[in-house]
Fold this protein.
Amino acid sequence: MTAVPVFLYHSVSPDPPSWIAPFTVRPGRFAEQLETIADSGLRIVPLRRLVAAQRGGPPLPDRSAVLTFDDGFADFHSTVLPLLAFHGLPATLYVTTGALRGRPGWTAGTVFPPGSRMLSLRQLVELDGYGVEIGGHTRTHPQLDTLPADRVRDEVAGCGRELEDLLGHRVVSFAYPHGYSSPAVREQVRTAGWSSATAVRDAFSSADDEPLRIARLMVRADTDRDTFRRWTTGSAAPVAPFPEGARTRGWRAYRRMRARLNVPYRAVS
């Protein structure tokens, strides 16, 4: 299997709120990482090309990679987009619809902590017009694998309906909040009509990976230059697909138990 780095970013900001700071990359470091990608010979392709290859379509170009961004922070519009445009790079942005500023009933702090700077409805429409692929990331960013089936359905299918109503066209790419899923959750995603879904797994994807559990490499604030460089060369991480481990299953059981006791594990504080 040929390793395909699917890079996962959240916020790109010089002054993030404390809760997202560990998952935020500074603008200068992000620009440097794009240069590292270019120098490595990686070719950034749209997510749909990877998904098509995984579903038996045309093979990927050699040395392919994908850029993805989760949640819908406003800095994607102000900081990330200009850098992507400068390099001519495609990307997929997964949006939590309940956090979009300006939506009916929106109140700051109801989805992400107060002070979080999220995209507005207008900015999202602009990004769609610029050619950024907009994907779904649920309505309220829950841990889907701890929820009852009806709640999962509302979060997964409801998010898609909201995005399609706003953008006026179909959206097909989904990302699991916190990277958490389960066989039952993935079946709900398939039933809702999403053609792909990304997880985390801290691993490379590949043309043999699972389209509804695509592995990604999370770029964090403390991701050092050498680790990122090694990712661009296809080393320093396993290659998916690989089976779900006992540790992952045990972690899910623990979080489900806490949810049943009404003391849910706080994935983000």
Summary: The chain has a mean pLDDT of 96. The longest strand covers residues 64-71. The helical segments are 27-40, 47-54, 75-87, 121-130, 149-167, 183-191, 225-232, 246-260.
